[in-house]
Design goal:
Layout (H helix, E strand, L loop, with lengths): L2 H15 L9 H15 L6 H10 L14 H12 L4 H13 L15 H12 L3 H14 L17 H6 L4 H7 L11 H25 L4
Helix pairs in contact: 1-3, 2-3, 2-6, 3-5, 3-6, 4-5, 6-10, 7-9
Length: 218
């Protein structure tokens, strides 16, 4: 089976698997990350096949929807890729991308896996977490979890560990300070950094307006 056909099969597999998923982690999220990854890849020396597979499969079973079990995503990806007769080294690489692309992996300071492909996908995924779409996704997930928009009495936790991050039920506005506003400075690639700067500014402008409206100033 040629690589182009495997990519098309992967797209179909992801669409079917994520049908009915929460709006911020559905097929359209995957599609945006895929497009971001292709854009970033234009200026990076990477294996395009691995980037495409990694982007398409990076959230095939997001741990937050599986009681925090981070093994399900890699297992689902492996089973599918084996059915497509993908080479073992590629499968292993994609498994590691799934394990280490998410923001919560940044809490694992002892992680030893890195690759140019992971850098691209990590940036592509983080871009979808900021800017206008990032704002929409933040509040969509907050609504999904029935979290308050904002509570002035609950300050952001700027020193949380991985378990605290995974179990947080804080208001949606807190998520900006605990993650979204931190992503600009965590980008790996030149293209990712450039795109993140624009999206970061949009979020800052949004927050200024949000607080002004909350206080009844405008």
């Amino acid at each position: 089976m040629n690589k182009s056909q495997i990519i098309q099969n992967t797209i179909q597999f992801v669409k079917e698997t994520l049908e009915g998923a929460e709006g911020g982690h559905d097929w359209f999220h995957i599609e945006r990350v895929y497009k971001n990854a292709l854009l970033i890849s234009e200026n990076e020396k990477v294996d395009s096949f691995i980037v495409q597979l990694g982007a398409l499969l990076h959230d095939i079973a997001d741990a937050k929807f599986y009681d925090g079990d981070e093994s399900i995503g890699p297992k689902k990806a492996r089973a599918f890729l084996k059915s497509q007769l993908v080479e073992e080294d590629v499968i292993t690489h994609v498994e590691n991308i799934i394990l280490f692309s998410s923001y919560k992996s940044s809490f694992d300071h002892n992680s030893h896996f890195s690759s140019p492909e992971l850098n691209v996908i990590q940036d592509a995924d983080r871009l979808d977490a900021i800017g206008a779409i990032g704002i929409a996704r933040c509040f969509n997930y907050g609504g999904y979890k029935n979290r308050p928009l904002y509570d002035p009495k609950i300050p952001p936790n700027l020193n949380m560990n991985k378990e605290e991050y995974k179990k947080s039920s804080a208001p949606s506005i807190n998520h900006f300070y605990e993650k979204l506003l931190l992503l600009k400075d965590k980008m790996n690639t030149k293209t990712g950094k450039s795109l993140a700067t624009k999206r970061h500014l949009y979020m800052e402008q949004f927050l200024t307006t949000f607080y002004d409206e909350w206080k009844g100033l405008i």
